[in-house]
Amino acid sequence: MGSDLKGIKTIRDFELKDKIVFLRLDLNVPLEAGKITDETRITASLPTIKYALEKGAKLVLASHLGRPKAAGDKKYSMEPVADRLSELLGKEVILVEEPKSDAVKALVKGAAKNQIVLLENLRYEPGETENSEDFAQAMASYTDIYINDAFGASHRAHASIDALPRLLKNKGIGFLIEKEIQMLNQLLENPKRPYLAILGGAKVSDKIDVILKLMDVVDGFVIGGAMAYTFLKAQGLPVGKSLVEADKISFAKDMIRRVEARDKTLLLPVDHVVTTDIASRKVMTTSCPAIEENFMGVVIGPKTISQYSAAIRGAKTIFWNGPMGIFETPEYAEGTFAIAKALSENTGLKIVGGGDSAAAAEASGFADKMTHISTGGGASLEYLQGLRLPGIEALKPPKISGL
Ligand code: ADP
Ligand code: MG
Predict the structure, then answer these.
(1) Rounded mean pLDDT of 327-337?
(2) What's the predicted TM-score (pTM) here?
């Protein structure tokens, strides 16, 4: 299961010297007032960039950034990324505004050893999200070898991910995608047991498909975050003014039934840290799973932390998606950080997926103790559901009919 990488070339398989290599990266970093607030995606892209440079490739780097509403929307310019890349690589980064123009070819060919070309935000071009053949043709016209290393964007059939590689014969993956897929495959192919899924975050509805998929493979679920209140409500408990998805209560009931029928574990919070007003940052701890009227659960409580930590101690494979509470607020962070700590002490396979979960692992100080933190939130969840990623599929050699 999981799309294997059979038949897909990697960057190692090509002679890169003097070739124009189109490197699709995920440089979609969070920005605040023009400053990069988390550069994980840039640093995760460096091994492939450096390898290509060492092998003498002429590089065209490309990525999307955020969701610009119009071409040239300055807020989403790749400029801060270009500056940071320039510092990290010690090269001048030439930012090209017109990815469709013939000028790209000339620029790349003429680039000096200490220069490297980066295309402006691919989403400035409407053809990118439309998976436009025209836009793909324009990019193909200056590409000798196409390498996709944008794991976080590979679940989207966009022009630079799907239409472009379909036009080309010389195509493959970079080191980041290779690692992501190898790591995630360990969850899909004979994971060591017990296998525990820790799920949290904002909404049950975001996670239904992955929960359904995991139901068949994991030995137990540990549920926290806002998601937990929908489950507690499904068990008939009062949850005060905690976030509940009323239309997902029946799904939660059904899931509880199915998990019990399969003799799997499902742990729900037995106590909570609550507040009357999120903005106040004033907290109380409940002594039981029920939450009184006027109170809202913001994170799992201390008894829950010790129960969940014990479950984590006993597991050999762990997938964590979704914080245990509102970890962005320091007063509400402890439950989530405690789970990260418990993971750090486990010696098995520990894989973290999800944008906010990755941020939480980072903020906890235990990120370097995880086996793998996926750079692609949506992509990792879709991959684990067994969905095929367009960005991987487009790299497979065409099937010959009749064979
Ligand atoms: P990921 O990006 O890792 O998939 P999600 O996006 O599903 O995770 O969930 C992360 C968000 O859920 C965080 O912003 C966090 O503040 C929020 N959240 C977690 N627990 C609660 C809660 N009890 N009440 C409100 N929001 C919560
Ligand atoms: Mg999120």
Answers:
(1) 98
(2) 0.89
Comparing 1 with 303, which gets the higher pLDDT? 303
Which residue of the set 203, 258, 264, 369 is catalytic?
203
What is the rounded distance in angstroms from the CA atom of residue 349 to the CA atom of residue 351?
A: 7
Phi and psi, residue 140, nearest 5°: -65, -30
Which residues lie across from 296 on neighbouring strands?
275
Nearest listed ligand to the Cα of residue 200 = 1
Pocket residues for ligand 1 (CB within 6 Å)? 200-202, 206, 225-226, 243, 297-298, 321-323, 325-326, 328, 354-357, 377
d(Cα 238, Cα 81) in Å, to the nearest integer?
47
- Distance CA(233)–CA(250), nearest Å, equals 10
Give the percent of the chain with pLDDT over 90.
Answer: 86
- Find, among 268, 291, 151, 301, the residue nearest to 199 by Cα: 268
Q: Is 70 exposed, middle or buried (0-12, 13-18, 19+ CB in 10 A)?
A: exposed
Taking the C-alpha atoms of residue 169 and residue 395, their distance in angstroms, rounded to an integer, is 9
The label of the residue with tokens 């010790």 reads: 306
Centre of ligand 1 from the C-alpha of residue 350, in Å: 20
Q: For residue 62, name the pLDDT band (cuts at 50, 70, 90).
A: very high
Mean pLDDT (the chain) is 94
**Burial class (CB within 10 angstroms; exposed 0-12, middle 13-18, buried 19+) of 13:** exposed
User: Alpha carbon 230 to chain centroid distance?
Assistant: 24
Amino acid at 148: N
Q: How many CB atoms neighbour CB 117 within 10 A?
A: 21
Can you tell me the distance from the alpha carbon of 392 to that of 55, in angstroms, rounded to the nearest whole number?
24
Instruction: Give the mean model confidence (pLDDT) for residues 293-299.
Output: 97
